[in-house]
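We treat protein structure as text, and this decision shapes the records that our systems exchange. Such a record has a labelled line for the sequence and another for the backbone structure tokens. The record that follows is passed on verbatim for readers who wish to inspect the format:
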Amino acid sequence: MPAGTEFAILAGIVSAIGGLTLYAGLGKGDAAIVTTISALYFVVAAIAGVLFLGESITVRDFLGIVFAILAIILISS
């Protein structure tokens, strides 16, 4: 198997799950809220990078993630 094939397969699976959850959210909620929250996908990527890839996080990055999570909480309530 060529190098990176496992990551490509995993990325395809995760992308499919993301698409399905987006459409499930659109079926249950307001499109303006669902699409705004889904646009904050980078929060999940940043947290995954720290947890699984050993990326470093600065105070500025941490505050950005915290404010994005607060935005999700505020917009969904």
The chain is about 80% helix and 0% strand. The mean pLDDT is 89. The two ends are 47 Å apart (CA to CA).
